[in-house]
Design brief:
The strands form 2 sheets. The chain has an 8-stranded mixed beta sheet, sandwiched between helices. With 739 residues, the protein is of the alpha/beta class. Among the domains are: 188 residues, EIF_2_alpha (Alpha-Beta Plaits); 273 residues, Rossmann fold, CATH 3.40.50. Helix 2 packs antiparallel against helix 14 and helix 9 packs antiparallel against helix 13. It is 61% helix and 9% strand. It is built from 27 helices and 12 strands.
Length: 739
């Protein structure tokens, strides 16, 4: 089906009757619907999901607050929309209607749910309720009752939630009090056991004490280092190694008797050394001096024992047994030595005291560090107990506050649904709306009518116009020929055809187009069609009649042995015919018959039995065509239909090309397309196709009307002749050609 806009008017004209029937049926159905359908009224009311905190208590505000719409979660406005159609709300509305004393006309919950529509206004918290019915007063009452039921349901829901919260809190508060008491007892026991009361304050105090001890430790260490340095220096000067020896050396150096005895011992030792240098130890003089020294030493030790401590007496006895005395160098005999000895004793005493003090400070520091290290260990359970106590107290206070809020919320009437627009009596019914119904019916009627036209066009397999044929065949369109009136079909009186310029001009244009397409002078053309009845014989005869206007000597060869028509169209006998020439009964020139048109001749043909048409493929036929083309300016061969016989294939090979004749509303597209495909596959030369039999109303789409170029008198005369001519068709063959 050709869907171009240019073919749409033709399609509508062709299918006007079924399109009008379809459109009229739809409009009639719409009118019938308006007549029989009772009026239905629709009322609307609007509810808003209010987010204002109107409750006195915080819990009441939370219960009435609209929850936020989270992605993937519940939508509060959608929840309310579903709640409107719930059985509880609708039953509450029915109860209110019954209390008002309004006749419910058999309303039920299912009926209300069926007629009630709920719509969410986009981007708002507003619900639009609509209810429709045939009784506008009842419908208005029903919708307002449903809106009131939603408000009451919201208030009851909030009150029920507040009551449930109150009952829960009344059971929970005593339990929280017990938890607070248990937490306080556990914390007090831990404080008594560990002594940890305030970890932060105690930690700060211990840190300050530890810092003070560390400062003392550093100061004592510095003093001790100074004392050790002084003691080492005095020890180097006095050659003393401890304070006891220093004390002894000082006491001995201050005793006068011991000083005298030490002097005598020194002199005696000096004299004994001299004697031993000259004498042996067995000499009486040496032995006398040794004995004297021993006695003097014993006296010295006796006096020394009075000054020495008990532990030194033991050492002195040992020295006496060894005949030794305290070395004179260790005895502070002079004032300077005694002074240094006293300083050494003081330095050693100070050093010993500082070491003791440093030890005590370090011991206390270690104790504080250990205690400070225990605080973090104890702080975790302490903090846990404190936190447990604080949480228990906070939980108790929170539950007590919520209990008071729940009591207030239960006593106060709070809801989050507000009626912003109540239902009112409508002035006109919603449906049926005559204007809307008629507009829809008109649009539907037009759509169905167009659909009917398209359906018929799809189901119709015939060609409709030249443009469709051109798109289907992909061949050059040589011309569009008008439908020839019955009185002009026969060329026995050619003036009926040749005198009408509207009929001959398309043929002249056809000849010119073929010559231009062939790019050379035409000598021999074959005219055929896909099937019988498309008017190929009429096209061939009338084309030949017009060619004479070009001063061409033209010959028509009727090769359609199945239905020969050329002799009927020209009013000539069928004898002699082509077969007489082929059978060598006579020459082809003698078989040619002149017609009523000058320079136009015809070689007729008669019907042959089936299967005897092989003469068209013979060499004799080829010779006849070649000789005719040499003798005449134009030779036109009329052949049988291409889809049924192969004659057009054979004869076209000897010609300048094949002209295919089509007929609108007659030629089957599939047969035509198959025929052209076979011709192309066999390499048959094709000049193009011709659209034959176009009516006056369709001809305006393909060419200008020739009437505007005729004189007014000729135009009137032509139409008068067409209207008054009722002559019969020349013969049965002519009728067949025009069918």
């Amino acid at each position: 089906m050709d869907t171009s806009l240019s073919s749409l008017p033709l399609a509508l004209r062709r299918r006007l009757l079924p399109a009008l029937a379809t459109f009229t049926s739809v409009i009639g159905g719409a009118i019938a619907y308006l007549v029989v359908t009772p009026p239905v009224y629709q009322m609307k009311a609007r509810l808003m999901l209010d987010n204002k905190k109107v409750s006195v208590s915080e819990l009441g505000r939370n219960l009435s607050q609209v929850p936020a719409n989270t992605p993937g979660g519940a939508n509060p406005i959608a929840t309310q929309a579903e709640l409107v159609g719930s059985e509880r709300v609708l039953q509450r509305a029915l109860d209110e209607i019954a209390l008002l004393g309004t006749s419910d006309e058999g309303l039920t919950i299912d009926k209300l749910r069926e007629d009630l529509k709920v719509k969410i206004v986009p981007a708002t918290n507003i619900l639009e309720l609509s209810y429709q019915g045939q009784n506008p007063e009842l419908a208005t009452t029903v919708l307002n009752a449903i809106a009131n039921a939603m408000v009451s349901e919201s208030a009851e829901g909030i009150r029920s939630e507040a009551k449930a919260v109150r009952e829960f809190l009344e059971k929970e508060v005593p339990l929280r009090r017990l938890e607070v008491a248990a937490a306080e007892a556990a914390l007090n026991k831990f404080k008594q056991t560990t002594g940890l009361v305030s970890p932060e304050e105690q930690t700060q105090l211990l840190v300050r004490s530890l810092a003070s001890l560390e400062d003392q430790e550093r100061a004592v260490s510095i003093q001790l280092q100074d004392a050790k340095t002084r003691s080492q220096e005095l020890q180097t000067i006095t050659s003393l190694n401890n304070t006891q020896n220093a004390y002894i050396a000082g006491r001995i150096g201050q005793d006068q008797e011991l000083q005298a005895l030490r002097a005598q011992l020194v002199d005696l030792d000096r004299e004994l050394a001299k004697m031993r240098s000259r004498l042996t130890d067995q000499n009486p003089a040496v032995i006398s001096l040794v004995q004297e020294r021993y006695e003097l030493l014993a006296l010295y030790n006796q006096k020394l024992s009075r000054l020495l401590p008990t532990n030194q007496l033991t050492n002195q006895s040992t020295n006496q047994s060894n005949n030794q005395i305290i070395p004179p160098a260790d005895v502070a005999s002079d004032q300077l030595s005694q002074d240094f000895t006293s300083r050494f004793i003081l330095a050693e005493t100070e050093r010993s005291a500082l070491e003791q003090k440093l030890y005590l400070v370090q011991t206390e520091r270690i104790k504080l560090q250990n205690r400070l290290g225990q605080i973090p260990v104890l702080q975790q359970p302490f903090a846990t107990l404190v936190r447990r106590q604080e949480e228990a107290i906070a939980s108790l206070k929170l539950l007590q506050n919520k209990l008071e809020e729940a009591r207030i919320a239960e006593a106060q009437l709070v809801n989050n649904i507000q009626i912003i627009e109540r239902a009112k009596l409508p002035s006109s019914p919603k449906e049926p709306n005559p204007k809307v119904v008629l507009v829809i019916a008109t649009a539907a009627g037009i759509a169905l009518a167009v659909g009917m036209v398209l359906l018929l066009e799809v189901m119709d397999n015939t060609l409709h116009d030249a443009s469709e044929a051109e798109a289907l065949l992909n061949l050059p369109r040589l011309g569009v020929l008008p439908k020839i009136p019955a009185q002009a079909l026969s060329l026995k009186q050619p003036n009926r055809f040749l005198a009408d310029m509207r009929l001959i001009e398309p043929y002249r244009l056809l000849l010119t187009t073929m010559e231009l397409r062939a790019q050379k002078k035409l000598q021999l053309i074959v005219v055929s069609s896909a099937v019988s009845g498309e008017g190929k014989s009429v096209v061939a005869s009338h084309l030949a009649a017009v060619s004479v206007r070009f001063s061409w000597r033209t010959l028509i060869i009727d090769a359609d042995w199945r239905h020969p028509m050329q002799h009927n169209l020209f009013g000539l006998p069928p004898q002699p015919k082509v077969t007489d020439v082929i059978n060598s009964n006579q020459t082809w020139r003698s078989a040619v018959q002149p017609t009523a048109i000058a320079n136009l001749s015809i070689l007729t043909c008669s019907e042959l039995p089936s299967g005897s048409a092989t003469f068209l493929q013979s060499q004799v036929m080829k010779s006849i065509l070649a000789a005719a083309a040499d003798h005449y300016d134009l030779v036109i061969v009329d052949t049988p239909p291409v889809s049924s016989f192969a004659d057009a294939h054979s004869l076209s090979r000897y010609s300048d090309g094949l002209v295919i004749v089509t007929r609108p509303n007659f030629t089957q597209k599939d047969i035509l397309l198959k025929t052209v495909s076979e011709l192309k596959e066999s390499s048959t030369p094709i000049l193009g196709f011709v659209v034959n039999g176009i009516s006056d109303r369709n001809q305006q789409y393909y060419s200008y009307s020739f009437d505007s170029y005729q004189p007014q008198s000729q135009f009137r005369q032509t139409h008068d002749n067409e209207a008054s001519n009722n002559c019969a068709v020349v013969s049965r063959g002519v009728d067949h050609a025009d069918s």
